[in-house]
Amino acid sequence: MYESMKYILKDANEHNYAVMAVNSVNMEMARAVISAAAEKHSPIIINIGVGQMKKLAHPSEMVPMIKEMAERVDVPVALNLDHGSTFEDEVAAMRWGFSSVMIDASSLPYEENVARVSNIVALAHARDICVEGELGHVGQANVGDNEHLDLYTNVAQARDYVNRTGIDALAVAIGTAHGDYPKGMVPKLDFDRLAELKAELKMPLVLHGGSGSGEENIRKAVAGGINKINVCTDAFHAAEKAMKAKWEENPNTNYLEIMMTAEAAIKKFVMDYIDLIGSANRYGYGATFSDSQE
Ligand code: 13P
């Protein structure tokens, strides 16, 4: 079923697990992600970024399709605008029917971040749409932003930010970054800071830049209070790897077969990731799949 991300993350926060948010840029990706969640009896979030929308995943096609896919499965599925930044992006996403919006004003001065996000929260909450904000800044892995301690989320400021904006979920900067890290590098996460943030805020926390972060880090992040993990690059890589292997095996593999190969690879990747972060067999709202079998 199609849900506001608010309820998905509320349950994850109360029961100490995390839900994947996978950037999905076409029908095959969205279907792979939703069917993986359905098979694992796991809540799931579909992310679409503003750039991705402009290049390929136009909301006029994607939103009705994802809603339809969501209504066919018995797990909660949310659709989240990823890294919206302008007022226009946010209002457009709400009008298209997204059940959640992220507003990323994290590169702006603090007071402007608070003002922009508060404005969006007022509009979104009137329609039961969930809002994710970001404080500190999760940058790019290929330029080493993950090592810039000055970009990490400040705990006292986060308290003030949440109080003043009224957001439902907070994206925190604790040492991850978007995209591929330099070859062989696994980021070092600031788990002490994460513990302080969780103790202070007691609300759903989001980790951006899930790709390449290492299983051990991801497990510890979930145990430390992360409730939503954004993954894009690694999902693309799962598809690319399978497509390359298929073409190496048979260079004449046709379009239909190659797209099916990509979809199957993404589905497998998401199913494994769901096991890693503990969202399998959870329906949300405190109910688990086993409850519904009783
Ligand atoms: P990755 O591409 O590093 O997984 O980051 C995804 C993300 O955080 C989207 O907001």
H/E element order: HEHEHHEHEHEHEHEHEHHEEH
**Would you identify the regions where 5 or more consecutive residues have pLDDT less than 50?**
none
User: What is the molecular shape?
Assistant: globular
Taken as a percent bin, the fraction of beta residues is: 15-25%
* Strand order within the widest beta sheet: 1-2-3-4-5-6-7-8
- Give the helix/strand class: alpha/beta
Bound molecules: 1,3-dihydroxyacetonephosphate
- Largest sheet composition: 8 strands, parallel, barrel
Number of strands: 10
From the alpha carbons, calculate the radius of gyration and give it in angstroms.
18 Å
- Discrete helix count: 12
Question: How would you explain this protein's 3D organization?
Answer:
The chain is α/β, with parallel strands linked by helices. 49% of the residues lie in helices and 16% in strands. It is built from 12 helices and 10 strands. It has helices at residues 5-14, 27-40, 50-55, 59-71, 87-96, 110-125, 155-165, 191-201, 215-223, 233-249, 255-277, 289-293; strands at residues 19-23, 44-49, 77-84, 100-103, 130-135, 169-172, 205-207, 226-231, 282-284, 287-288. It has an 8-stranded parallel β-barrel, surrounded by 9 helices. The longest helix is centred in the C-terminal third of the chain and has 23 residues, at 255-277. The protein is globular. The model has no long low-confidence stretch (mean pLDDT 96). 1,3-dihydroxyacetonephosphate binds next to strand 3, strand 8 and helix 10.
